[in-house]
Design a protein that fits this description.
Elements: H1 2-23, E1 39-42, E2 51-53, E3 57-61, E4 69-70, E5 83-88, E6 91-96, E7 103-105, E8 116-119, E9 124-127, E10 133-136
């Protein structure tokens, strides 16, 4: 009888160890070190106060099939595929994708289409109208 209890205890401990290993957060690789911590915070408009992780990249616009941050078709100043924010090693790049109304830095400078602009934490940009402002964190 004691042998069965001992075997059951060993199986139970092995199962607990396997479970704990499976739920352990994966260790961060050098490749992912900055990527998972970077995100956008919406400062106005319909997404005010919400945060969006960038991951490798996030596209902003009205096309639900292509965008990670999706505006309704009635959103003024936002194109179907407006702009993209992407990680490039440890840097964050912003790219206007040929939008109709434009993508702007928070200082009002309009981005040229299809040219990367690099953002630092705290930098902001907006789509078409300053109401649609995002800040990099």
């Amino acid at each position: 009888m004691q042998t069965y209890i001992g075997i059951a205890l060993i199986i139970f401990v092995a199962a607990v160890i396997a479970y704990l290993r499976s739920t352990k957060e994966p260790e961060e690789s050098a490749e992912d070190s900055g990527r998972d911590r970077r995100y956008l915070i919406a400062m106005g408009g319909m997404y005010r106060g919400q945060s969006f992780p960038i991951g490798r990249e996030i596209v902003i616009g009205r096309d639900a099939a292509k965008c990670g941050i999706i505006y309704p078709n009635t959103a003024k100043g936002v194109s179907s595929v407006h702009c993209k924010v992407m990680m490039e090693e440890e840097r964050v790049a912003l790219l206007d994708l040929g939008s109709t109304y434009g993508t702007f830095r928070d200082n009002g400078d309009k981005l040229s289409p299809n040219i990367k602009y690099y953002l630092e934490p705290g930098d902001g940009f907006y789509l078409g109208d300053a109401e649609n402002t995002f800040v990099l964190k």
